[in-house]
Each structure stands twice: as C-alpha cells, then as structure tokens.
Amino acid sequence: MPRIPPNIGLSDTGPPIPGLIGSGPTMESVYRLTRQVARSNASVLLLGETGTGKELIAKAIHRLSPRGSGPFIRVNCGALAESLLESELFGHVRGAFTGAIDNRTGRFEAAHTGTVFLDEINSTTPKLQVKLLRVLQEHEFERVGDTQTIRVDTRVIAASNRDLLEEIDAGRFREDLYYRLNVITIYLPPLRERREDIPALVSHFLKIYNEQDFRHVPYVAPAAMQALQEYAWPGNVRELQNYIERAVVLAPGDELTCDLLPEAVLGGKPRRIGRNRAGDLETVAAELVEQGIETAGPSAENLHAMVVNRVERELIAQVMAACDNVQIKAAERLGINRNTLHKKLKEYGLEK
Hints:
Helices cover 44% and strands 10% of the residues. With 352 residues, the chain is of the alpha/beta class. A five-stranded parallel sheet has the order 2-3-6-1-7. A two-stranded antiparallel sheet has the order 4-5. A two-stranded parallel sheet has the order 8-9. Helix 8 (198-212) packs across helix 10 (236-250). The radius of gyration is 24 Å and the shape is globular. The model is unreliable at 8-14 and 273-280 (pLDDT under 50).
C-alpha cells in the first residue's frame, strides 16, 4: 500500500473556528454551540477530560464575542494554594500578608471589559468559592487586606476535568456556585469519541513540528495511521500532539512509521518504573506464591480468587486514574454500573 499524506481526502476549507481542528459531527455541535454562546455575556462551564482543548474553546468564545478586543486572562486554579490563589484572583494591598510589599492588581481586575478563564475550577476551596460566587452575582470584590470595594465588568468562563455534581455530593464544591457557573455547559469529547478527526490532527501537528524542528516528515505510513486511530488516547489531543512531535524528531526519513510510535500506541504495555504491575494472572500468582500466600487456603481456589482480586484491583485503580477519579466515566469504561464500582472501590480501599 502506498504511503499517503495524512490529510488526503479531507476538506481543505479549514475548521469551522480558526485554531480548532476537527470536522466530525461531534465537534460540529461544539463549534455551533461555541458560536452561539460567544454572542452573549452568559457564564460558560467547559467540561471534559484533561487534554481535550477546553482552553482553546475558551479563547474562541472570547475572540468571537463583543469582548474580543478586551483582555483574556487565564488562571489555573489547581496550580496555587488557597492563600496565593485568592491574591492572584483578587489582588492585595501592601502589608496584607508577609511578602506583600506593594499593592497588586488581581486577575479579575486585569480582565475588566474582557474575559477571565478559571481552569480547574474544581480545585478551589469552599472559602474561595464564596468570593467567586459574589463576583459572579454582584460583579464586585475587595482586594486581600483592603476594605474598598472594586467593581468589574468581566465575563467568566470556567473549566473542570471532574464531575462537579460528584464534587458537590462529596462536599467539595458549592451547589449555588455550580448553578451560577452552569448557565451554559459545553462538553468537550475525548479523542476516542471523535477518531474521525485524528488524520486532520496528525496533519496539523506534522506541519507545526516540521517547521519548528526544521524537519521534513510529510507522510504517514498506513499502518501507523491505523495504529493512531485505534489507540484509546487517555491523554487525548495533548497526548497525540506529544507523540507526533516525538516521531518527527526521531524520523530518519520523510515518513512517520510504526517504529516511531510508543509501545502503548502499538498495543504494548508502557514501561513503568517503581510500580508493581499486575500484567496477567501468572505474574500475580507467582508474586503471591513467593510471599507464601498460597498456604493460607486449603485449595487452589483460594489462590485463584486472590489472583483475580489482585488483577481487578489493579485494573480499577488504573482506569480511575485515567478518568481523573470520575466514577461515572470509570464505570462506563469498565462496563459496570456506578454502584458496583463504588462498592468495589470501598472493598479494595481505593475510595480516596
């Protein structure tokens, strides 16, 4: 089979929204909703797994809105401790705390007439959520250590890679803040749910990294493209981007071939360091025998049950990690209902 450019047969009219790649039906609905939402001042909640492009959609909403000429300010709420995040969002005055040697403007104030994008909103504490709720409702706040009220005209777009309803049930997220943010929700599908867009994404990233790294790898072997389209992509578009960059850097010629892809993409198991892997029943059984566990029961049935439980525990732990501990998504991927998953998490001590 002859090698082909990865974008053969695809429309060359460009994506519906500049900067966003994908023309399948799943993404078409995202684009359509993005354009509708952009014309308003409504708060928007972006939901999706890590690496699905939530920031790109937030930027598109801002760019297409009447606020497009104003500032777009991004804050990663999961990257800072509560005390630092409060100062980052609302600013502080001199002497408000140790190290506050000057007055500082916060991100909300800096985003006046524009948009503030609160990424990983689920990482905020209940105390900080109260102040966020006030900004959303009243458009006002005070800097840390100050009593003067500041009013702002700022649109809020928030994003979460976790199920916020589960966070509410667990007492980690305020219900009133959720409903204030959730005026309009846009769900960003994982890459495994829009595999038809993979060739276009591959083409896009090849172009970027060929230019960036002074390389010439314009072609993709059919077997390599098939492997890319069959892989589950737990890291979504960001993972695909990294693997394409890796392949471009390592390619000896002008073609991306299977040997340039990681083992995981080709159906193998990635190498892990410092972890006790339950790769198969024989491996686990051998470990248990070495520990003398088989002497604890009267028959091989006991050993078999232990092995099965060990493998099941490892599988559930890995799937939960891949789903960012969102039980609904993990249960769906495992093919069991949420109540069964919750019971097994408790049984195996994986609740936390």
